From TrEMBL:
Phylogenetic lineage: Bacteria, Pseudomonadati, Pseudomonadota, Betaproteobacteria, Burkholderiales
Domain of life: Bacteria
Pfam family, one: adh_short
Protein family according to the UniProt entry: Belongs to the short-chain dehydrogenases/reductases (SDR) family.
Keywords: Oxidoreductase
InterPro entries xrefs: NAD(P)-bd_dom_sf, Sc_DH/Rdtase_CS, SDR_fam
GO molecular function: oxidoreductase activity, acting on the CH-OH group of donors, NAD or NADP as acceptor
Protein name per the record: SDR family NAD(P)-dependent oxidoreductase
Length: 272
């Protein structure tokens, strides 16, 4: 299916590894100039160089997206380096889960979670999404259209014990996205959300989510697969490439009439 993304410009937050890296690579393969955002310079630079080596166009955009002033400055610099005046596509991919406690690696219940940890989760999962949208919307409106795709978690659609603050933050992304989809439909700006479950990628050092884990060598992974209907047949968890196809579709004109929606790319973990 032809996506007609050539000569577009996309900004991907958290683009230095995992899902974000895959998105950057796949956008570039479609002829998109990519602003690769990451908090860590070496990650952003590495992905940008990887794209360039394949003949694509990419610019590293290093900043803490929870700091609006730093974000604004980095965005302006990246646009200038790319020779662009605005971005056509924003993917809000960066996010953070609560820190797990030593006892079995289980995330804390709400009453046991330090308030400072609340702020970390809310700042990146909520405020950073709002900041990035505030940054790109004026340019999209002047250009006559644009696409915003935000990555949330199924915890935000269904709620999950041990992830109360995270669930609330991810649910906020959905409500916010629906509202700006209504506000900016007249500007031909589509705003949608992708909801994820567990994802296996190269940025995870070890355990059930490591790409080398299999049901045969990891008992926890074997148990996790039972929660994802399609995973039982595929015998694996979601991978970045499973997500990328859905995001690129929503970022294309093939999805011109899709806005204010949440699509679960989670193997049936939540069905609504």
């Amino acid at each position: 299916m032809e996506l007609n993304l050539q000569d577009k410009t996309a900004m991907v937050t958290g683009g230095g590894q995992g899902v974000g890296r895959r998105l950057c690579l796949d956008f570039a393969a479609e002829g998109v100039t990519v602003l690769v955002n990451d908090l860590f310079a070496e990650r952003a630079q590495k992905v940008a160089e990887e794209i360039q080596a394949l003949g694509g166009k990419a610019v590293p955009m290093v900043c803490d997206i929870t700091d609006y002033d730093a974000l604004e400055a980095a965005f302006a610099g990246a646009l200038k380096a790319a020779g662009r005046e605005h971005v056509d596509i924003l993917v809000n991919n960066a996010g953070v889960t609560p820190e797990r406690r030593a006892k079995g690696g289980i995330p804390p219940q709400f009453l046991d979670m330090p308030m400072d940890d609340w702020r970390k989760v809310v700042d990146l999962n909520v405020y950073a999404v709002m900041y990035c949208c505030r940054l790109v919307l004026p340019g999209m409106r002047v250009a006559g259209g644009g696409k915003i795709v935000s990555i949330m978690s199924e915890a935000g659609r269904a709620g999950e014990a041990g992830l109360a603050v995270y669930s609330g933050a991810k649910a906020a992304i959905l409500g916010f996205s629906k509202a700006i989809a209504q506000e900016h439909g007249r500007d031909r700006i589509n705003v949608n959300v992708i909801a994820l479950g567990a994802v296996s990628h190269e940025g995870i050092a070890n355990g059930a989510l490591h790409p080398d884990a299999t049901p045969e060598n990891n008992e926890r992974l074997k148990k996790m697969l039972r929660a994802y209907p399609i995973a039982r047949g595929l015998e694996r968890l979601c991978r970045p490439e499973d997500i990328s196809g859905a995001v690129l579709y929503l970022a294309s004109d093939r999805a011109a009439y899709v806005t204010g929606q949440s699509l679960g790319v989670s193997g049936g973990f939540v069905m609504i």
